[in-house]
Amino acid sequence: MLRDSGHLQERDAEMAREGRYSRHDPPLPLYTVADADRAIGRFRTVDFGIDTPLTERAGFGLTRAGHVLGSASIRLRIDDASVLFSGDLGRVGHPLLRPRAAPPAARTIVIESTYGDRDHPDPGAHPHAALADAIRRTIARGGSVLIPAFAIDRTELVLHALSALWRAGEIPAVPVYVDSPMALAALDVYRETVMRAEFLPDVEPTMFDLPMLHTARSAEESMALNAPRTPCIIISSSGMASGGRVVHHLPHLLPDRRNTVALTGYQARGTRGRALLDGEREVKVMGRYVPVRAEIVNDEEFSVHADAGELLGWLRELPEPPETVYVVHGEPGASRALAARIREELDWCVVVPSVGERVLVG
Fold first, then answer.
1. What is the pLDDT of residues 330-355, one digit of tens each?
2. Which of 50, 59, 60, 250 has the highest local Cβ count within 10 Å?
3. How far apart are CA 62 and CA 85, in angstroms?
4. Average pLDDT over residues 94-116
């Protein structure tokens, strides 16, 4: 994943140089494949639930966070001080993965707040009904469905949901293309036998069953999807349409009213995904504005980020109250809303820190 990300950084910088649409001169990648390789060479595998010493005074431990495969909360200790960083916390009922573990005690908690101001909708008796409706409408009018999806976990969840919808007869059997080298590499990892312990017992090793599933591994195969010959579903990263191959599909598919773009996760402010979600009629792609005539739908059921209630539930599982909770990693309103609920419901000292603010722990 890190190596592929470095490749994308290099490619995007080169395209920006050639297209002259960057504000930087020259545009440079944040990091390169060589940088990634140097970092990967220093990776070490650490199991959940084991205290790992760093020095005589410091160490850390990992706890399953249940957000994506391998995600963890980390508790860092230095002498008598201890800080627990939640990282991205998963939902209590992830469709594929084992649930998150109870957090260990720590004097200071740093918790994310991506969905700190809302609770996820209840899918009811028909999960992903909005997506199924959109697929049926789009195929009936001769269009294709483009699904921007994060390469890690979200692509797997989308395929899992499409399989269930097809088996239930809620969507037609049409070609489904996975168009993301990183997502394809992640699929291989998810299917490895050694990973089975991380999945729920009832999840089949194949995870999904689609009769017309295809992979677009080469650049040529990806380019062919800019003008599909028949109605189809294209799953391509990135999930916020801010990079990756999906950016190359948007200029070709957005102007056609027969097509649909189905958003499947959180869309941060300033991303193309957020612009589409907010109803913008033109979006800027690689330096040029593209008209948005395609149908835009949003399936909120795919999010595996813990919502406000689940974040509070994680805090309630702490063996003892912390001295201070810092609420981070969220839009300002979401962070403030979560902090208010922690203050009101748990009566703990809670702060939404400013960017660059320094505090003492321990």
1. 999 999 999 999 999 999 999 999 99
2. 250
3. 10
4. 95
Query: Does residue 100 contact residue 336 with C-beta atoms inside 8 Å?
Result: no
Q: Which residue is associated with the tokens 């009922």?
A: 93
* Dist. CA 335–CA 339, nearest whole Å: 6
> 69 to each of 9, 19, 49, 206, 293, how far by Cα in Å?
23, 37, 16, 16, 36
Alpha helices in 24-95 (DSSP H): 33-40
CB atoms within 10 A of CB 47: 8
* Separation between Cα atoms, residue 228 and residue 255, nearest integer Å: 14
Establish whether domains 57-120+304-362 and 129-302 are of one fold: no
The string of pLDDT tens digits covering residues 244-254 is 899 999 999 99
Q: Please count the other Cβ atoms lying within 10 Å of the Cβ belonging to residue 244.
A: 27
Lowest mean pLDDT among 67-76, 123-132, 136-145, 227-236: 123-132
What amino acid is encoded at 316 in this protein? R
Range in 18-22, 87-91, 220-224 the model is least confident about: 18-22
CATH number of 57-120+304-362: 3.60.15.10
Q: 324: helix, coil or strand? A: strand
Cα 63 from Cα 218, distance rounded (Å)? 37
Amino acid at 234: I
For residues 325 and 109, the answer to whether their CB atoms sit within 8 Å is yes
Tell whether the model's pLDDT for residue 362 goes beyond 80.
no
Strand-pair partners of 146? 234, 261
User: Is the pTM higher than 0.90?
Assistant: no
Domain boundaries, the chain: 1-43, 57-120+304-362, 129-302
User: What is the topology classification, in CATH, of domain 129-302?
Assistant: Rossmann fold (3.40.50)
